[in-house]
Write a structure and sequence with these properties.
Layout: H1 21-31, E1 41-52, E2 58-67, E3 72-78, E4 85-89, E5 99-106, E6 109-116, E7 121-122, E8 129-131, E9 134-139, E10 142-147, H2 151-162, E11 169-181, E12 185-190, E13 199-207, E14 215-221, E15 224-229, E16 237-244, E17 247-254, H3 256-260, E18 267-276, H4 286-290, E19 301-308
Protein name: DUF868 domain-containing protein
InterPro entries: DUF868_pln
């Protein structure tokens, strides 16, 4: 699939593929779910953090929580090289050591990962714990990442035991959630800035009538509809802007595969919320974000990748 924002301007993109109107009508009913009462299942969450140490060195840390039918796991990647990563199975049937620490080295960094998932609680379907856990990442002499509601207590005990260790500045710059299922209903929560509220987000693709013709993309935030895109088979890519928590947020969508890739093993949809600090209309890709190393303020992107099973 092409990069999401490589196709966009400030308006919905019209159909450029050479496809007849009859093919649209035939594909609409097969790609839009008639029953949207059950949301698709969230099976992976990846968060990208930017850490700035006291010596002004910077490090990107990527944390992935994943879940399948047989296992559940945590992966922490340091920098851009996937080989520089720490992996842990959090499924008690396969890996019973849910509390511990592990040290490793990469490049010129000495890294220690400390975790306690023994009392972690998860929501009904997601792979990411919601409370009762901590994950600490210590890089050289500084803590570069602190996650979980029990992290502050664990950090205090660690300092009392081993002496004072400074905490580096770290920022969340992107979050990706992967869904799969037979429906085109996606339910999640998102916080778009550090001091902002946690918002309920619901995205649905449905028909305007009982025959599922004229599909519509609807986006709800805190149960209020903020975006409605009609004739989705014509406006399968585009973006609109919303205002939330004092921020301008670009919402971008790409549901092309839902209509034109039905012959493959599954169809895909991509949705992105992207904050911007000013009125500049330029939409940045993640590689553009990584180039803004020397800027204090980092914008935030929230990406939803949905795979619909045939």
């Amino acid at each position: 699939m092409r990069d999401l924002t490589s196709c966009y301007n400030e308006y919905a993109v019209q159909v450029s593929d050479s496809v007849s109107c009859s093919s649209y009508a035939n594909s609409t009913a097969s790609c839009i779910s008639p029953n949207l009462t059950v949301p698709s299942i969230q099976n992976a969450v990846t968060c990208l953090y930017k850490t700035i140490f006291s010596n002004q060195n910077q490090l990107f840390i990527r944390v992935t929580w994943s879940k399948t039918n047989v296992t559940q796991g945590l992966s922490i990647q340091f920098g851009d090289d996937p080989s520089n990563s720490f992996k842990l199975s959090t499924n008690s049937r396969l890996f019973r050591k849910k509390k511990g620490s592990k040290s490793c080295e990469f490049n010129d960094y000495k890294v220690e990962v400390l975790w306690d998932l023994s009392a972690a609680k998860y929501n009904s379907a997601g792979p990411e714990p919601i409370n009762g856990y901590y994950v600490l990442v210590k890089v050289d002499s500084e803590f570069g990442l602190i996650l979980g509601d029990l992290a502050e207590e664990a950090l205090l005990l660690k300092k009392l035991k081993n002496g004072t260790s400074p905490v580096a500045k770290f920022y969340s710059i992107s979050r990706q959630e992967h869904f799969s299922g037979k429906t085109t209903l996606y339910s999640t929560k998102a916080q778009f800035c550090d001091n902002g509220s946690l918002h309920d987000i619901l995205i649905r693709c449905s028909g305007e009538n009982e025959r599922l013709k004229h599909p519509v993309l609807s986006v709800y935030i805190d149960k209020k509809m903020v975006i409605k895109v009609k004739r989705l088979q014509w406006n399968f890519r585009g973006n609109q802007t919303i205002f939330l928590d004092g921020l301008l947020i670009d919402f971008m969508w790409d549901v092309h595969d839902m209509f034109f890739n039905l012959a493959s093993s599954g169809s895909y949809a991509v949705f992105m919320f992207r904050t911007r600090s000013g009125m500049n209309s330029r939409l940045w890709l993640e590689d553009k974000i990584l180039q803004k190393d020397h800027q204090d303020k980092v914008e935030f992107s929230f990406l939803i990748c949905a795979s619909r099973c045939p």
